[in-house]
Structure formats: C-alpha cells, structure tokens
Amino acid sequence: MNFNLTEQQQQIVDQVREFTAQRLAPGVLERDEQQVFPVEAFKEFGAMGMFGLCYPKEFGGTDVGYLPYILAVEEVSKVDSSFGIGFSVNTSLYGGSVMYSSATDEQKKRFLSPIASGKAIGSFGLTEASAGSDAAGQKTIATKDGDDYILNGTKIFNTNGPLADYTVIYALTDPSVGTKSMCAFVVEKGMEGFHVGKVENKMGIRSAQVSEMVLSNVRVSADRMIAKPGEGFKLAMKTLDGGRIGVGAQALGIAEGAFDIAVKYLQEREQFGKPLFKQQYLAFKMAELYADIEKAKLVLYKAAFLKEEGKPFTTAAAVAKLTCTDVAMKVTTECVQMLGGNGYMHEYHVERMMRDAKITQIYEGTNEIQKLVISGGLFRRK
Ligand code: CAA
Question: What is the pLDDT of residue 351?
C-alpha cells in the first residue's frame, strides 16, 4: 500500500489549488449572498482539462485517473463547495451517465466529448417530485413516435440545470412495468418544449444553480437514447455510485476548509491572556476533528482507488459518502462554535461552510439511503 501521491497527481492538486486561490476565493462570499455561479471560472477550469480527468482521450478526456478527479473536487471545495458540486455533477453524473451507458462510441464522442473537454456543461435529470429516495418512482414518459420519442415530465433539484447545454433525462417507456422500461436520453438546451422551471433558493451551496427541468412534448431522435428500455435504472445507480464519491470529496473539502480557518483563528485570537489553542479543551477538540478528517480521507481515497482499478465500489462509495458528509457537518458545526460570535458571522466563512455541509448529507442519496446500500451489501446472499 502506498499513501504517496504520484508526481502527476500532486501536480493536479497544485494546479487546482492555484486556480482556487486566484479564481474562486475572490468573491466567494458575494456569490453565496447573491446566488451567482462563477460561470466564467467554471469554463476556464474546463478548458484546463479538469472535467475530463477521468475520461478517455477518445471521448474528450485527459485520462489522468479517477483519484486525481476526486482530489480536484476536494481542493476546490475547501474554498467554494458550490463550484465543487457543479464540477462533480458535470463530471460524475452527466459524464458518468454517458460513459457507463450502452451508448455507441459515436454517441459517446457526440455527447461526452463536449463536456469532458470543457466546451459545454452537463446536468443529470433523475429526481422528480414522486421520485426522490425512491428513484424508481419516475413519472417522466418517453412515447415512441415513428423513429423519435416524445418526452413529457418534470425533473426537480437539477444541479447545473439553468446552465446546462446537455442534460441526461431518465424516463419510462411503459409506466405499467416501471423500471423495466426505464431508459435515458441526452436532451439539449434550446430543444423545443425543454425549459428551465423554478430555480431554487437554498440554505447552502447558494451559488450552485439548481432548478426544475420541464419537458413538454420534447421530440428527440432515437440516436439520443443512451440507455435502452430496462437499462436506465441500473445506469442511474451505477452513475450515482461514482457521484457519491464526488459528494464525499466535496464534503471532505468543506471540512478541511473550515478546519484550516479554525487552526489560524485559534493561533491568532487571544482570550484570558493567551492564544485560544493554549486552552487544552480547544486543542483536544481540534485533535479529535483532525482524526475524523484523516479517517474520512482514507475511506474516500479507497473508494476512488477501487473505482479507478475497475473493482466493485458500490459499498465503498456509500461508506465514503456517509463518512465524509457526517464529518463535514461535525467539523463545520464545531468550527462555528470555536470561533464563537465571529463564527456566526458571514465574513469568517465557517457559517457558510456549515450551511453547505448540510446538503451533502442529503443529496445523491441521503445518508439513510447510504446505510441501506451498505447494509444491503452486507446481508445479500452470496
Ligand atoms: N449498480 C448497478 N445496479 C444496481 C445498483 C448499483 N449500485 N443498485 C441497484 N442495482 C440494481 C439491482 O441489482 C436490481 O437489479 P435486478 O432488478 O436485476 O435485480 C435493480 O437495480 C433494482 O435494485 P433495488 O431493488 O435495490 O432498487 P430499489 O428500488 O430498492 O432502490 C435505492 C434502491 C438504493 C434505494 C435507490 O433507489 C437509490 O439509490 N435511491 C436514492 C436516489 C438518489 O441517490 N438520488 C439522488 C439524485 S441526484 C441528486 O442528488 C441531485 C444533484 O444534482 C446533486
């Protein structure tokens, strides 16, 4: 077992750290207040090849690996986790849906290359009002009409929805047989009948753009179908396995970002005639949080490693998501407490990080769903 990053992995981390300091740190508080996403910075990041780190060159990627991608999500999320989830949904959920589908190489070139090469933005349309944790409860319908399909339905909570050039839409061709008819299509911005619905006003990740995506008689040609009827549910599940490692990385980044701020604060702030870190209660609290972060890092990197190696990783991804997101909630809450009144104030960043951490326990499968996935794996008959 080797815990060192390769030279190439370290280079990616350094490059992302520099980008984050220069392009994401300035204005992060204002973007949170105003719910504005840094679209230009996102495009620049894509042009650096970051959206294609884990995809083959023939489909527009840079083929560097899955762990470097996860390290990049972690790194940006230390400062701006709204950017982190935009990056993760774009890469893991849109990219993963296309890459791991039964789409032909020609379809993958057409639908994955623009995203992996950073020329376009992707989003993922699975969740509906009646299909949250119960992802099988889909109502979106794909009706065959000659060589085409007509799509009708409403997707909700689509991260990147308002920005996306390409969206993967999961739908049923025959509701009477449920997921046995679930398929998936790539739908593009500007197609007749396809539009952005309500844009959400959120507690955290306020700069991320999250919306409904409404489909009213959207005509799509059959060559936009990337998962045939019956393949859609498993594709969504496989894709979410990858997405959950991305959310784990986002959450770990949030925890580390808040922790770093607390280290500095406890060194600088003096009370009772000495710096706060000389209060053993606070020093021990930081030691506990540090140990939690280190444990989360290990399970996260293990899940990324298994995925990169092509080994089964469903359980490892659920463990990583559960662990990292609970650690993010704990660390950010404790950091707000340790910074006292200042911690509650916007300009100290940790309150934003605490708000951002909360959603990581909810999306891409609530942490209760992660326990279902983990326990399901434990007790499945061999
Ligand atoms: N990989 C491949 N196949 C899988 C799988 C996986 N990880 N998990 C399940 N399957 C297969 C099963 O093997 C089974 O196949 P067979 O029919 O051939 O036996 C089939 O899928 C059905 O499996 P289940 O019976 O376990 O399915 P279920 O209906 O009980 O649901 C669930 C399982 C884990 C609860 C699932 O519904 C789930 O993950 N729910 C959470 C949904 C979710 O994460 N939503 C997030 C949306 S994205 C988002 O958050 C927004 C954003 O933009 C950030």
Answer: 98
From 73, 237, 241, the mutation candidate for ligand 1 (largest count of ligand atoms within 8 A of CB) is: 237
Distance 135 CA to ligand 1 centre (A): 7
Helix axes 232-268, 350-360, angle to 10 degrees: 160
Final residue of a structural domain among 199, 230, 261: 230
How high is the pLDDT of residue 380?
82
Regarding whether 139 and 181 lie in a shared domain, the answer is: yes
DSSP state at residue 131: B
Q: Which residue has the CA at smallest separation from atom 47 of ligand 1?
A: 364
pLDDT of the residue at 109: 98
Q: What is the pLDDT of residue 2?
A: 85
Question: Is this structure's pTM higher than 0.70?
Answer: yes
Which positions of the chain have pLDDT values less than 70?
381-382
Domain boundary at 116, 137, 157, which? 116
The pLDDT of residue 382: 60
Residue 311 sits in a domain whose CATH number is: 1.20.140.10
Rounded to the nearest angstrom, the distance between the alpha carbon of 238 and the centre of ligand 1 is 8
Same domain? 374 vs 240: yes
Q: Which of 75, 256, 334, 364 is labelled catalytic?
A: 364
Same domain flag for 158 and 255: no
Dist. CA 373–CA 365, nearest whole Å: 10
Residue-number span of the structural domain to which 97 is assigned: 7-116
Domains identified in the chain, total number: 3
Helix/strand/coil for 220: strand
174 assigned to some structural domain: yes
Q: Which residues pair with 159 in a beta bridge?
A: 210
Q: For residue 63, report the phi and psi dihedrals to the nearest 5 degrees.
A: 55, 40
CA-proximal residue: ligand 1, atom 43 (nearest): 365
Name the closest-CA residue to atom 52, ligand 1: 159
- Does 268 qualify as catalytic in the annotation? no
Spatial neighbors of 199 by CB under 8 A, at least 6 apart, are: 161, 162, 209, 210, 211
What integer pLDDT is reported at residue 381 of this predicted model?
64
